[in-house]
Specification:
2 strands; mainly alpha; about 575 residues; about 0% strand; two-stranded antiparallel ribbon
């Protein structure tokens, strides 16, 4: 097998399924109407409810859902070999991930931008809504922890990208000011933003931000010290960024992120097609390769603990129903944003798998026989960055360090988006949860639900969890809660499609994958809690405690879904206009 065949196959699959399966969902399940007013217009407030250009919203949505997910997961899963990793990404995208993302977004649009957990409470029971809200908050806590760990590691080991990332944020703020306050022409503002973005990458390449000499050695005390500095910086950043109006940073930054994405996918895709290099990594190593916690991990059920966002992700339903649904200009734009965004993420994961399959053996120094047992210690996120940069160098002649700077900025820009989006959504979930006691405890409620207090709580605890644990420890815990959330969100979407939208047999295109995922991830989390050792007692209590709470809520939510599915359709109201 070679890189050209895989990249071209991915393009064909995604384009074909978008215009067939995706369009069928749009017409037969969602029944999208371009003339129906969306929440962005009905509830416009200039802060959260703001109609966005479909391309701008696509950029925000993709940047928010992606983070490091479609890169880290496949990069780690390569211990099983490239065939199982690629099949999980492709099949997961088409039949679970894209369906989940699109329906979560559009169900929220029909309910005035309400969250997926609110919708679950509406069409199942009040208890369901409360349980789901608690579950989501714990999931978002693990999102913050995992992404703080990933981002800090990236910015310590590639200090050139640290400079470029900070400059990128300033460029995004300037772009937002030009677009929303100075009323600069959309295309002129875009051109200025892109020029400044290129300058930021070049300045970062020439001026690395190094906090501690020797920090790029991941085994050194200097690395740990610099890692902790970035933990603090990131905590402060997400508290502030998550509380700003979306036009200040979120929308313009994610719009620029979309260009980074398109450029990165384009030049990477062209390079790997043109090079047509053979895959050096084995197609399949063993059923129980050393992956999760460096322990032997059976591909089923543990693959969703590793490949999270690349194939499917429950976090996407929170983003789609939490921020994107409040910014959708027209219902017909939802397919591009929700369905297309997930396919784009899958294509990114395909690039990751291809880059490692081509260059992984060279970069890690492992032979085929060692791959399944030792890759987890010598490979991972850095293997993709190195492989991608090497591909650019081989085809375009781009300097390896410049290629690594761009690849790291690409990842860091998305992780920052996911971090402050997760914090913002965690604040929403916290406020909604405590909103249930507002009538009886007004004073306490005002304090606890203050946006700064709510943001500090989730950001502070998440950073504390990342402080003493690496991303390979936190990632499977985050992924498990995240994928279980996807199954619960899909069951909610299936109920909405069947009982409210009267989608008939198309409802089962949502229900069957949801039940398969629910069983798979439930078994995987039980396996993780029993089998995987964690580095210290505090991390064990925090991580496995959160997973245990999530598991208990998961069973309760599953039972509520069963009861709701059995209820006569006549008991459900008509679909909201």
């Amino acid at each position: 097998m070679n890189s050209a065949v895989i990249i071209l196959a991915a393009v064909i699959i995604y384009v074909a399924m978008y215009f067939t399966y995706g369009k069928s969902l749009q017409n037969k399940v969602v029944k999208a109407d371009a003339n129906r007013p969306t929440p962005a217009h009905k509830l416009y407030d200039g802060v959260d409810y703001v109609p966005a250009h479909p391309v701008v919203l696509y950029g925000h949505h993709f940047a928010s859902i992606a983070g490091a997910g479609p890169i880290v997961g496949p990069a780690v899963a390569m211990a099983w070999g490239w065939v199982p990793s690629l099949l999980w990404v492709w099949f997961g995208n088409v039949f679970i991930g894209a369906v989940h993302d699109y329906l979560a977004l559009m169900a929220s649009v029909r309910y005035d931008g309400k969250s997926v957990q609110w919708i679950a409470g509406k069409i199942m029971s009040r208890r369901t809504g409360i349980s789901f809200e608690v579950y989501i908050w714990f999931t978002l806590l693990l999102v913050v922890a995992a992404f703080v760990a990933v981002t800090a590691r990236l910015l310590v080991l590639t200090p050139q990208a640290a400079t470029a990332t900070l400059l990128f944020l300033l460029v995004a703020i300037l772009l937002g000011w030009m677009m929303y306050k100075m009323n600069v022409n959309f295309y002129v503002a875009t051109a200025i933003g892109l020029i400044l973005l290129v300058i930021a990458v070049w300045i970062g390449f020439k001026n690395p931000l190094i906090f501690v000499p020797g920090q790029t050695d991941a085994t050194s005390a200097a690395y740990t010290q610099a890692y902790h500095y970035w933990n603090i910086i990131l905590m402060v950043y997400i508290i502030i960024a998550s509380s700003l109006p979306v036009w200040v940073l979120l929308q313009p930054r994610d719009y620029l992120n979309a260009y980074i994405l398109w450029f990165g996918l384009l030049i990477g895709g062209i390079a790997f097609i043109a090079l047509a290099k053979p895959f050096e990594v084995p197609g399949f190593t063993m059923w129980s390769a050393n992956v999760v916690g460096k322990q032997p991990s059976p591909f089923w059920p543990t693959v969703p603990l590793v490949i999270a966002c690349g194939a499917l992700s429950g976090f996407h339903s929170i983003v789609g129903s939490g921020t994107s649904s409040k910014q959708l200009d027209k219902e017909i734009h939802g397919l591009l944003v929700g369905y297309g965004g997930m396919f784009t993420e899958g294509f990114l994961s395909t690039i990751v798998i291809t880059a490692i399959a081509v260059y992984g053996v060279k970069l890690t120094g492992l032979n085929v026989a060692e791959w399944g047992t030792q890759y987890i210690t010598k490979g991972g996120l850095g293997t993709f960055i190195g492989g991608y940069a090497q591909g650019l160098a081989d085809f375009y002649g781009i300097d390896i360090t410049l290629g690594k700077t761009f690849a790291t900025l690409w990842i860091a820009a998305f992780t920052l988006t996911s971090l402050d989006t997760a914090t913002r959504l965690g604040r929403f979930a916290w406020q909604e949860l405590f909103g249930m006691v507002t009538d009886t405890s007004q004073g306490i409620w005002n304090t606890i639900t203050n946006k700064w207090v709510a943001s500090i709580i989730i950001a502070g605890i998440g950073t504390w969890m990342a402080w003493g644990a690496g991303y390979k420890v936190l990632w499977p815990a985050f992924a498990g809660m995240n994928q279980l959330l996807a199954s619960i969100a899909m069951m909610t979407a299936a109920l909405w499609a069947y009982k409210i939208q009267n989608a008939g047999k198309w409802s089962y295109a949502v229900l069957i994958p949801a039940l398969f995922l629910w069983i798979t991830v439930t078994v995987a989390i039980v396996w993780y809690i029993i089998v995987i050792p964690l580095p210290n007692m505090s991390t064990t209590i925090a991580v496995k405690g959160a997973l245990s709470v999530g598991l208990l809520l998961n069973f309760l939510l599953g039972y509520d879904f069963y009861l709701a599915w059995k209820r006569p359709t006549e008991e459900y109201g008509a679909a909201p206009a």
